[in-house]
Amino acid sequence: MSSTLLEVTRSKHEEVERFERLIVKDLQNEPASNRERLFQNHRVRNMIEAITSSTEKLIEIYEDNDNARKDEIAALGGQTATGTNVFSAFYDRLKEIRDYHRRHPNSCALDVYEEAEELLKEEPHVEFSGEEGHGRYLDLHELYNEYINSKFAERNEKTKEPIEYSAYLDVFSQPHKISCKLKLSRQYRDYLEHLLEYLIYLFQRKEPLQDLDRVFSKVETEFEDLWEDGKIQGWESKGGNISSQDSKIDLDYYSTVHELMDVGTDKLKEALAALGLKSGGTLQQRAERLFLTKHTPLEQLDKKHFVKGLRNIAQNGAAVASQEMELKEIALKESKMKRLCEMLNETIEQTKENVQKKQALTVDEREKELEEEEEQVDTESDDDEQQIYNPLKLPMGWDGKPIPYWLYKLHGLGQEFKCEICGTHSYWGRRAFERHFKEWRHQHGMRCLGIPNTKNFNEITSIQEAKALWERIQARQGVNKWRPDLEEEYEDKEGPDMKLACRYCQANYVFFFNLQLLYKVLVCQGLK
Known about the structure:
55% of the residues lie in helices and 5% in strands. It is mainly alpha-helical. It is flat.
């Protein structure tokens, strides 16, 4: 039944349309966790690949290079070698259909909708190591071992020992810090290739919907322009002194040997050496030897002009070109690696935090954390996958469901209060706003302003208002301090006990650090 090309064409079109609808339906569901998001992306990726495969098959059918589709359409119209017989073609096809159902009496149509629902619940198998945590972290331990056992590895300035894994996570994405001469080694090329392969493999598993070919195509286009301008970081001179391009002199600007002599001895010597020519002799002899290359190809020059051991410059030029191609290839791989690191920047930062966290844990704590992560994964997989209906975006309650709307209005959670002292942080609801004055964020902000966090500053959220109030409080407290113009301090006959004399009420009070007596004097002054 499905062996004809027309039936295959119809089924492929139906398959493409069904997968498109499934992709839209799957992407409308918001993943509840990183694991669910990963599975969703891989499901969509698999469906896109299925659409691509079906489309390629359809293109092949429509091109009809063997005229099979054309012949089948002609047969449906009853065209035969003897003429056209529509009824004969119709009954032949009817007989074929009846024979098929007679041979397969129990065959039934597939339930496309049931199959689609099962496809949306599928959890594709994505292989991650234990350190990668479903794509949340990098696992660079093998590359780290390869790095510290190389000559180009960064070492501690004091101990001269290789850097630790946590420090390696900071430097592996900075190849420009490595010397260009060390990059020519086979060891570095292998390390760079392994690093690039791992990052590509991780990115394809973590972000299956991203088109890496398009990203790398853009990187290559930008790289060509920057390479020609010498603006690639770490390769500003196209490999430093390794390449001889900077030593060449453009002879089109010189019409005579005497003009070329103005370049100088050193420049001429470098240019001759870069071409494999002898660099000895006087200034004029060097200029004449170099000027010969303006109108005569290097291959046609007399062998006496070349350095002994280089029979023809073509070999030397090929070696230089080959070396430059190697340098360019290394620089291009570094550019691709840097772009991948930029796209995986969040993952790299999470890896650093995870490594630092593990270093502070004991063996028992690490094992307990692994058990908790496994339990969390099992819980996420067993959770109800239905989407919670929350059009008003109400806060979630203790049961993981939106709180009632009347409770939302009762607590005034729709009102927003901003506190400039807390860094313009927002607090929703009057209760949360009043409570935040005693929390660490507000206390820290007041401490930064140099103001004590007392009850006097409740309801104050502006920095300017807080400073103004603090100045008024300080000025008011200045009245209660000891003032030489109104008060005096002296000793009595009984000894060195201090007395406070109030000039307004002419009363003396012995000061034994008695707060009640001191308060009486201050009240007296304030009332006066």
